[in-house]
Fold:
Amino acid sequence: MSYSDKAVASMVQELPFLRTKYHELMHVFVYRNYVSERGRELGVQGFLRRVNIMMHCVSRLFEYLPLDRPQANLPNDESIVGAEIAAHAFLINVYGAIDNLAWVWVCEKSVRDEKGRAVKRGNVGFWRNNTIVRTSLPAELQTYLAERDKWLDYVADWRHPLAHRVPPYIPPYCVAPSNEDVYQELERKMLIQLSVGNVASYEEAKQKQKQLGCFRPWLQGSFSESGRPIRVHQQMLIDFVTTHEMGLKVGHALDPLRPEGEY
Structure:
């Protein structure tokens, strides 16, 4: 799978604790005394449901593309599409979960703009440009978010193309440069056979192409907007853990006097 043995061991160790992290967030956002019903809805029905979806998306990804799959053993089309669906839902909900946290803060703390008005919908968030909301946070949480601006940028850079332009793409296989000429020759033959309606010869050449490939767990969004591909297993785990951590930080900022053991 092109992961190091150390990376695989770390991911295998982390997977069983996703549900524990979800339950920690439940204790923070379900069992608190909300000031507003809107805050409660966005904390419980928004943030927590998204985290639950994210947890299941990670599990499905590891089932569709198991870490112990040999590189030469290519996943079938159903596994690729299933993994793409899991990654799509996950990335959309990471962005939504962060937005939910910002909304909970705004609703529970009655955040207002410089003129005392309710913050406009488009200005609610934890991203760099959401200055009204970010400056309303405790200094410690402001610093925490500033240190994670690059991660927040990455979340937004993936979410917008996925939601509005192109779905995520996992290449079914990759071809080494040493096999590129053979691959391209087979591609030429496939086009010829397809043009004359020789489906059997087309499929035969297609299978020979696959034999030249090996699988790599890369996820690509928009080729013009999303930048370089990401290693999908590793990045989804990082994103889940970061969302969990951010949820705990916001929960503590909302209820700083709550006993520490309840977080």
Notes: The CA atoms of residues 113 and 119 lie 6 Å apart. The radius of gyration is 22 Å.
